[in-house]
């Protein structure tokens, strides 16, 4: 379990992480999303004890990492896949790491097998592809058999096969009951990988909720309607906050009303319906809306630290 409480980090006049609180729980994949510079890497570095918080705390299983006697057995991290000695083989790299942390050689064989590195393990790291480097990073993170794993952008630059492999590995690690905390820019990838999301924008938590709730809450209601009386119904639905887009003579899409409201209105005006289908917003849509809102309310210096009343009132539970 990872717990951040009022975590804050400033570098000179830059506030990289601003009063951030969240929990990444065991048995699930917690996705850590946010635009460039949102503060994801800084948060992860503080979790690993590589940077000190200016205020607040981030703990792994209730303690700061430096307070654990055997940190590698508590948490494994892939923060920078390139941080290896290129002249060594993958197996040598893992053996050195294991030896310096009192971990037996058998575990090195185990993690090589777990990450499918058998054939590459005897080759020099200098010749590794990006995907093989990523596997080596994950193998190193798993050496201490830790209950908590932190992966910073683990699929960046990987080919589709590599992306799929990381996704399956991450899901499996959570299924084993581990805490998996993973950052990414890739919304579609997170939608397939994470159970829960923490979204950062300019150092602040914008949302902290199950992935499905984020899609439901932030996505605007959209409904596909097919009716032989399409133009009558479109006239009846027309309002200031409603967008109507015709697809053909009988079919149109409504944004801003839910299916129940459209159905009731159709009955009132006597329009015969052939289809009434709620359309799900994609995670990408929800994410863009959330981060866009953050940028807007931060752009005015006078309201920099105050969420506007209408945004606060409209925010669903978990969206801050
Ligand atoms: N060592 C540092 N010194 C000064 N500023 C820093 C330092 N590390 C990070 N920052 C600043 O803190 C902010 C957050 O950076 P961070 O790398 O944590 O964001 P990120 O969400 O990981 O972004 P990206 O996805 O681009 O890696 C940025 O404005 C960055 O320039």
TrEMBL record:
Stretches assigned to the ABC transporter domain: 2-227
This protein's UniProt keywords: ATP-binding, Nucleotide-binding, Transport
Stored Pfam families: ABC_tran
Single GO molecular function: ATP binding
Protein family: Belongs to the ABC transporter superfamily.
PANTHER family the record matches: ABC TRANSPORTER, ATP-BINDING PROTEIN (PTHR43335:SF4)
Name of this chain's protein: ATP-binding cassette domain-containing protein
């Amino acid at each position: 379990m990872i717990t951040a409480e009022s975590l804050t980090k400033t570098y000179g006049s830059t506030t990289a992480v601003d009063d951030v609180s969240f929990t990444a729980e065991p048995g699930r994949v917690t996705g850590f999303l946010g635009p460039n510079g949102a503060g994801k890497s800084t948060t992860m570095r503080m979790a690993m004890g590589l940077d000190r918080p200016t205020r607040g705390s981030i703990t792994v299983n209730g303690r700061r990492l430096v307070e654990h006697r055997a940190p590698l057995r508590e948490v494994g991290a892939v923060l920078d896949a390139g941080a290896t000695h290129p002249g060594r083989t993958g197996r040598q790299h893992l053996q050195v790491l294991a030896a310096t942390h009192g971990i037996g050689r058998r575990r090195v064989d185990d993690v090589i097998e777990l990450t499918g590195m058998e054939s590459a393990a005897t080759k020099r790291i200098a010749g590794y592809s990006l995907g093989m480097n990523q596997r080596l990073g994950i193998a190193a993170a798993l050496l201490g058999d830790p209950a908590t794993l932190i992966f910073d952008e683990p699929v960046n630059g990987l080919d589709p096969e590599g992306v799929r492999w990381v996704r399956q590995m991450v899901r499996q690690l959570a299924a084993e009951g581990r805490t998996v905390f993973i950052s990414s820019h890739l919304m579609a990838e997170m939608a397939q990988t994470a159970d829960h999301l923490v979204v950062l924008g300019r150092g602040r938590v914008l949302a902290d909720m199950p992935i499905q709730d984020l899609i439901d809450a932030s996505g605007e209601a959209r409904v596909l309607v097919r009716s032989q009386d399409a133009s009558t119904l479109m006239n009846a639905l027309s309002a200031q906050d409603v967008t109507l887009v015709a697809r053909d003579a009988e079919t149109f899409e409504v944004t801003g009303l839910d299916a129940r409201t459209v159905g009731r209105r159709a009955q009132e005006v006597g329009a015969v319906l052939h289809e009434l289908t709620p359309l799900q917003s994609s995670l990408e849509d929800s994410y863009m809306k959330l981060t866009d809102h953050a940028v807007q309310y931060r752009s005015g210096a006078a309201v920099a630290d105050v969420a506007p009343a209408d945004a606060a009132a409209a925010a669903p539970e978990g969206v801050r």
